[in-house]
Design a protein that fits this description.
This protein is mostly helical. It contains three helices and no strands.
Length: about 140
């Protein structure tokens, strides 16, 4: 089913780019906004499904007598989901930024994607970039 969604998204992007060629650059902003709105709707649906699934898993754990998740603990699923969402969004964002901003747009987009992922990694692992003290002489 994921392949069908990817195909639909590619068709939407192709249609948006085709419309831009036909309508001209004066409609560029509206076309980009429309495409991004469709992406937002897909993301919202995916997040909603993931949250429902997570809530159901938590309820199952509680029903079985297991401890529920603690407040600040991260899970493998959260890290995996964030990575997948980042990669899925990277595809259309790269295409849009490449179409409208050229290579500079793609570079700026990927700097943003990497920045968001580094921020998430540091949030989940506060000591990630701190030196461990091994192999250092003070």
């Amino acid at each position: 089913m994921t392949d069908a969604r990817d195909t639909d998204l590619k068709k939407e992007l192709d249609a948006t780019l085709h419309a831009r060629r036909e309508l001209g650059p004066e409609y560029e902003s509206e076309l980009a906004d429309s495409f991004l709105e469709k992406i937002d709707q897909r993301i919202d649906g995916a997040v909603e499904r993931r949250l429902r699934r997570s809530l159901a898993e938590q309820q199952m754990q509680v029903a079985r007598g297991a401890r529920g998740p603690r407040g600040g603990t991260d899970s493998w699923g959260e890290r995996f989901g964030f990575g997948i969402v980042s990669l899925v969004l990277a595809i259309p964002l790269s295409a849009i930024s490449g179409a409208f901003g050229g290579m500079t747009g793609v570079v700026v987009t990927w700097i943003g994607i990497v920045g968001v992922n580094v921020t998430q990694a540091v949030r989940l692992n506060p000591g990630l970039f701190q030196r461990s003290g091994r192999g250092h002489e003070d």
